[in-house]
Design a protein that fits this description.
mainly alpha
Length: about 100
């Protein structure tokens, strides 16, 4: 699936996953803290809570790694072409060269 979706679409999907995982964690926490539930049920929900938190952590780590990779590519691109950031390459109509007389 990686590479198939544009970055914006992939980011939207990741945001949705993070939102759902956080909602699931909140639901698990409510059940775990409910003293009216029997111990076996609370134990199963605790396991679900732990598994969900591991998945959420991995998704967030993946997102952070992708952000770092993007930043690194920008830095590498800048090091290859440092003049691109200056005005001359950003707007090809503006040059630092003197006009020929």
């Amino acid at each position: 699936m990686e590479g198939d979706l544009p970055d914006a679409m992939e980011e939207k999907v990741r945001d949705g996953m993070v939102r759902q995982l956080r909602q699931n964690l909140a639901r698990c926490r409510r059940v775990i803290m409910d003293q009216n539930m029997d111990l076996k049920t609370r134990e199963r929900w605790t396991q679900l809570y732990n598994n969900t938190s591991q998945v959420l952590n991995q998704v967030l780590k993946d997102r952070q790694m992708r952000d770092w990779e993007k930043r690194l590519r920008v830095i590498e691109e800048y090091r290859k072409n440092p003049k691109r950031v200056e005005g001359s390459q950003a707007n090809p109509l503006i040059t630092n060269e003197k006009p020929v007389s």
